[in-house]
């Protein structure tokens, strides 16, 4: 194992390999997600045009049922892979990694079969009593059959992440799944199956993507299913951790839909439509953050449990700053031209501008604090993370009850943003208290000048320009990035900034990559 230098500082050679590894996987994740987003938008346009609102709504309900079923049937074992497999491999214990993997697959396979059987027998109850939608009965058997491939799809995605192959995971989920789903739907639609064809497309997409991910795992780590295996920890400990992660996953899902569900209950369907677009656009800001988050997670587990705390601190700081370098100008652009962007969805959606700004502030908080959730979970403090989610979910419900009747769409945004700020600030304080980690350094002050200058310029343009066409606001986005990064470069990029940004620019063909960290 590489060691720190004698004076207590960390050698650049110690961190560069992990930093470049995370950046490489993250740029792959971002690329595939961008392509997947385009495929998804095109697919949803086709589904809506071919099926209409009613039949598409039936499929949305059925796919939501399938999502809930797979979330429960996965038993939280995906995060167990990310927690234990990287540590075992870093210690040369392939048998331990194989043991965790095989235990997870056996347990989840059994749970998904049971879940599918339950859905099969409850199909009439779900269609007629719960959702009061007779058409749902035609696709519930497909949901029951899809429980196994959809659950293994989730599990094998975490398996690739545990092997530090997040780009492969994203390729399977964003490209393979979506293309197979679309192709299956088009073929079956012309055979007369219509909305049932789309549900078969969902299940077929899960099955093919699951097979691709299993192939990629075995190509990179054949020992997972071949040879001897042992458990690196007692089975009771593994199941306890998985159970906690299952609880966290369910609570996270509940929190993620609280705003739209309560807006639908307390306001109008039109308000839900306006809010949903603002919510989806604000979440685009999370693209880079989530890519680095997923790529960093297995590294957290490996470094923490091998007592390489200084390396962990350095990576945490570098990756958080890299996220801010890219997200800050994007957020400022949304503040300036968010209403112009919303106008292209329809005139009614411009009313969601301030909700978009408020939601953006909540997302920015996640970026400012960095990967606090995975740091707590993968360092053995998952109960703290679970407690945070339970408390903030309750707070989120209360805030929605208060704000929505008074402010409508903006009220739901207030509730969500306040909840995001609260859970992330609390988690940051817990990471500081429990792990002794904070991401901030003096170099973060260099972001103030670029932020102030670009914000002032964007607000001036907003006040002095008429409605802008899409190509104009796109051009302004690139111009703003240029100004922001240019002002940062004048003050001097940090060494790790060059590594990460070089890798990202190399991926999109704008540079040579991070081969020379010194610049």
Task: Offer a few descriptive terms.
single chain; 519 residues; mainly alpha; 18 helices; disordered N terminus
Number of strands: 0
Mean pLDDT: 85
Strand content: under 5%
Mind telling me the C-alpha Rg? Answer: 23 Å
State the share of residues found in helices, binned by percent. Answer: over 70%
What global shape is seen? globular
**SSE succession:** HHHHHHHHHHHHHHHHHH
> What summary fits the major beta sheet?
none
In whole angstroms, how far apart are the ends? 27 Å
Class inferred from helices and paired strands:
mainly alpha
Runs in which pLDDT lies below 50 for 5 or more consecutive residues are 1-11, 508-519
Q: How many DSSP helices? A: 18
Quick structural gist:
With 519 residues, the chain is mostly helical.
Structural features, described:
The radius of gyration is 23 Å and the shape is globular. Helix 11 (309-343) crosses helix 18 (495-507). The chain contains 18 helices and no strands. The chain starts with 11 loop residues before the first helix and ends in a 12-residue tail after the last helix. The model is unreliable at 1-11 and 508-519 (pLDDT under 50). It is mostly helical. Helices cover 80% and strands 0% of the residues. It has helices at residues 12-73, 77-90, 94-121, 123-130, 140-162, 166-189, 194-220, 235-266, 269-283, 286-305, 309-343, 353-369, 372-378, 382-407, 409-435, 448-464, 470-491, 495-507.
């Amino acid at each position: 194992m590489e060691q720190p230098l004698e004076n207590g500082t960390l050698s650049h050679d110690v961190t560069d390999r992990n930093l470049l590894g995370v950046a490489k996987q993250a740029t792959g994740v971002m690329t595939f997600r961008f392509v997947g987003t385009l495929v998804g938008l095109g697919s949803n346009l086709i589904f809506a045009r071919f099926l209409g609102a009613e039949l598409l709504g039936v499929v949305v309900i059925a796919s939501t049922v399938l999502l809930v079923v797979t979330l429960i049937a996965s038993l939280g074992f995906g995060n167990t892979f990310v927690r234990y497999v990287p540590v075992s491999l870093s210690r040369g214990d392939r048998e331990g990694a194989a043991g965790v993997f095989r235990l997870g697959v056996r347990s989840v396979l059994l749970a998904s079969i049971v879940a599918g059987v339950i859905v099969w027998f409850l199909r009439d109850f779900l269609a007629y009593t719960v959702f009061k939608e007779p058409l749902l009965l035609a696709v519930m058997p497909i949901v029951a059959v899809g429980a196994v491939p959809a659950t293994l799809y989730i599990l094998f995605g975490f398996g690739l992440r545990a092997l530090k192959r997040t780009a492969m995971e994203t390729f399977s989920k964003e490209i393979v799944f979506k293309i197979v789903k679309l192709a299956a739907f088009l073929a079956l639609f012309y055979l007369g199956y219509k909305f049932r064809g789309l549900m078969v497309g969902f299940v077929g997409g899960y099955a093919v993507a699951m097979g691709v991910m299993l192939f990629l795992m075995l190509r990179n780590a054949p020992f997972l299913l071949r040879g001897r295996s042992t458990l690196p920890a007692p089975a009771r400990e593994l199941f306890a951790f998985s159970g906690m992660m299952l609880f966290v996953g369910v609570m996270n899902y509940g929190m993620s839909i609280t705003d739209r569900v309560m807006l639908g209950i307390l306001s109008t369907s039109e308000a839900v439509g306006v809010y949903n677009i603002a919510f989806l656009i604000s979440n685009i800001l999370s693209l880079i953050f989530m890519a680095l988050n997923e790529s960093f997670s297995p590294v957290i587990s490996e470094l923490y449990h091998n007592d390489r705390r200084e390396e962990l601190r350095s990576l945490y700081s570098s990756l958080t700053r890299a996220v801010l370098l890219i997200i800050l100008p994007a957020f400022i652009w949304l503040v300036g031209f968010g209403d112009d962007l919303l106008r292209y969805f329809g005139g009614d959606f411009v009313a969601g501008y301030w909700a978009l700004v408020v939601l953006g502030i909540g997302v920015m908080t996640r970026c400012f604090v960095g990967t606090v959730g995975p740091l707590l979970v993968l360092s053995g403090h998952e109960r703290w993370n679970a407690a945070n989610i339970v408390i903030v979910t309750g707070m989120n419900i209360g805030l929605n009850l208060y704000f929505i009747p008074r402010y409508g769409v903006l009220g739901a945004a207030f509730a969500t943003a306040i909840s995001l700020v609260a859970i992330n600030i609390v988690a940051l304080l817990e990471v500081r208290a429990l792990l002794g980690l904070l991401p901030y350094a003096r170099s973060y002050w260099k972001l103030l000048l670029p932020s102030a200058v670009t914000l002032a310029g964007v607000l001036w343009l907003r006040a002095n320009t008429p409605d802008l066409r899409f190509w104009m606001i796109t051009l302004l986005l690139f111009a703003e990035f240029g100004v922001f990064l240019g002002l940062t470069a004048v003050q001097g990029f940090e060494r790790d900034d060059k590594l990460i940004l070089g890798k990202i620019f190399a991926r999109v063909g704008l540079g040579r990559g991070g081969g020379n960290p010194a610049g």
